[in-house]
């Protein structure tokens, strides 16, 4: 200290500064909150410091938000799984896994894990849950018990026939409107037609008649456009689930889709509600053998039936459409695979349309479908689950209760240890070659495209039936060629994948399969 500074002057200056600060409550509050925030961040950071991950992700959710908003979260999570291992940190309280064993443990019937608030975004009617948004395990189990018999086909008749009717409608549409003759190219967007097919099929199965996409060859009520436009919004909701509470408030709710709308999601809600209204109160001698009839017999209330009927369309159209597009796309750009599939049909000589039972016995077809589910999974969302309050342990590391664990589907489906060095290529043979154990592991893992255990997809059986039948009917009827091979289609990923502009040229096949 310089000799000419008096210690009493310093004390006076410090006292004056403190007095001035004491007179500034706002400054104190901001200072105290900053200290609390920093201490809280350090505490949260240390809770999961045993798990590796990008440095920033340990301190803030900003990277997670950036990946999602940029539509590349699935690829970023794959990179993280490959770089940091099977359980890595992606946000201060969020981990991501690509380990199929951990995923099976988390989702097992008796597991104490539960769905995180991420699922609230799937309340398509903001103040009403459905089977995908319901988070309480007991409430979910009770609802699933009422829905499962209808979805499984045990309690319904005519599902396969309805799928056949819609296949015939699609094949006729292609033949009447989209065949190319010699010297001409009659373009059509395969991505769009696949969704017309899946949306009509699922509405036929759940509402009793198709909405009419195929019959009119049009996006009825702008439904497909408005639902695709809402996907970016869905991402924001899944990352900020508290917004759902805001949306359920009266003044905001009136701007949400409503059953009274003449277009978009609201119009589809209206169609679902009209069908449900006619069936309530349930009659003792109700003879409906469809899904809604089954739901009603198992005690679904009118409001629940409205939510579930709408959900079927949302959960069952874009998902199956993406898988159909990707299977057909990869088959038609790989003549070797198309040839093998057709050879299998030539030998088996199935009826037309092929039955689900016949298709299930064709090993190469089954391998192609599994490879389609793997190479381009239609659902890539993190599907966060909360670790139970008592915590869990993974490879000797403790995971504190309340941590959310998400799923890296690309990390799992591109894992070379499971799928081989050529995991990034479309090669159906990987489901037919290898030891019994390897094949079993691949079969169990690919079934994870539909989720596992407690939350496994209820529409899996219907989706597989659609895939089995439509893939065969298309490849035995048409030769398709990709019109713009350097940019074959466009894709947006919002946790659910959407494609468009998949331009194709179709001619009739000259051979019979
Ligand atoms: C290729 C097509 C499909 C794929 C890849 C797929 C995938 C999935 C996945 C991964 C889940 C699990 C979500 C979670 O863990 O929380 C799920 C759930 C569900 N899916 Fe699908 N899905 C497909 C088709 C369908 C169809 C056609 C329907 C309707 C007919 C449907 C209805 C449902 C329902 C209702 C649930 C909720 C199950 C529950 O919470 O217990 N899905 N789906």
TrEMBL record:
The positions annotated for binding heme are: 457
**Which of UniProt's keywords are assigned here?**
Heme, Iron, Membrane, Metal-binding, Transmembrane, Transmembrane helix
- The protein's superkingdom reads Eukaryota
Task: Say yes or no: keyword Isomerase present.
Answer: no
Q: Where are the transmembrane segments?
A: 26-45, 231-252
Task: Please verify whether the record's keywords include Iron-sulfur.
Answer: no
The record's listing under Pfam families reads: p450 (PF00067)
Q: Care to name a GO molecular-function term for this sequence?
A: heme binding
Q: Which cofactor does it need?
A: heme
Q: Which PANTHER family match?
A: CYTOCHROME P450, P450, PUTATIVE (EUROFUNG)-RELATED
State the protein's name. Answer: Cytochrome P450
């Amino acid at each position: 200290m310089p000799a000419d500074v008096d210690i009493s002057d310093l004390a006076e200056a410090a006292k004056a500064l403190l007095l001035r600060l004491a007179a500034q409550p706002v400054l104190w509050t901001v200072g105290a909150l900053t200290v609390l925030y920093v201490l809280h961040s350090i505490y949260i950071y240390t809770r999961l410091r045993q798990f590796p991950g990008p440095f920033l992700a340990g301190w803030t959710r900003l990277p997670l938000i950036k990946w999602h908003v940029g539509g590349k979260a699935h690829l970023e999570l794959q990179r993280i799984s490959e770089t940091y291992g099977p359980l890595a940190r992606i946000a201060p309280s969020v981990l991501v896994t690509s380990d199929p064993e951990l995923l099976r443990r988390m989702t097992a019937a008796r597991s104490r894990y539960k769905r995180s608030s991420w699922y609230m975004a799937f309340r398509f009617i903001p103040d009403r849950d459905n089977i995908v948004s319901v988070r309480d395990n007991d409430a979910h189990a009770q609802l699933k018990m009422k829905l499962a018999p209808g979805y499984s086909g045990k309690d319904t008749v005519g599902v396969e026939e309805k799928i056949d009717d819609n296949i015939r409608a699609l094949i006729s549409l292609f033949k009447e409107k989209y065949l190319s003759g010699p010297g001409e190219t009659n373009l059509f967007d395969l991505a769009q037609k696949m969704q017309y097919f899946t949306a009509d099929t699922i509405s036929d199965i759940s509402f009793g008649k198709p909405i009419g996409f195929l019959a009119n060859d049009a996006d009825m009520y702008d439904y497909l456009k408005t639902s695709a436009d809402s996907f970016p919004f869905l991402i924001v909701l899944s990352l900020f689930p508290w917004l759902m509470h805001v949306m359920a408030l009266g003044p905001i709710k009136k701007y949400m889709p409503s059953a009274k709308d003449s277009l978009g999601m609201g119009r589809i809600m209206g169609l679902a509600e009209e069908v449900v209204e006619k069936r309530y109160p349930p009659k003792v001698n109700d003879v409906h053998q469809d899904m809604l009839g089954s739901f009603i017999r198992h005690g679904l209330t009118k409001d629940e039936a409205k939510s579930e009927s709408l959900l079927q369309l949302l959960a069952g159209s874009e998902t199956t459409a993406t898988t159909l597009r990707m299977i057909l796309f990869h088959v038609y750009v790989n003549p070797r695979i198309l040839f093998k599939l057709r050879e299998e049909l030539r030998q088996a000589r199935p009826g037309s349309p092929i039955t689900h039972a016949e298709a299930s016995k064709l090993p190469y077809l089954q391998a192609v479908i599994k490879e389609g589910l793997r190479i381009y999974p239609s659902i890539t969302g993190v599907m966060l689950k909360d670790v139970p309050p008592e915590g869990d342990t993974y490879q000797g590391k403790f995971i504190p209760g309340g941590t959310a664990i998400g799923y890296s589907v690309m990390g799992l489906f591109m894992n070379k240890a499971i799928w081989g060095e050529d995991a990034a290529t479309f090669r159906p043979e990987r489901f037919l070659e290898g030891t019994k154990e390897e094949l079993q592991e691949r079969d169990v893992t690919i079934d994870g495209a539909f989720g596992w255990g407690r939350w496994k997809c209820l529409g899996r059986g219907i989706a597989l039936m659609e895939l089995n039948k439509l893939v065969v009917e298309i490849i035995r009827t048409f030769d398709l060629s990709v019109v713009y091979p350097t940019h074959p289609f466009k894709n947006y990923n919002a946790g659910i994948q959407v494609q468009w502009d998949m331009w194709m040229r179709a001619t009739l096949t000259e051979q019979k399969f």
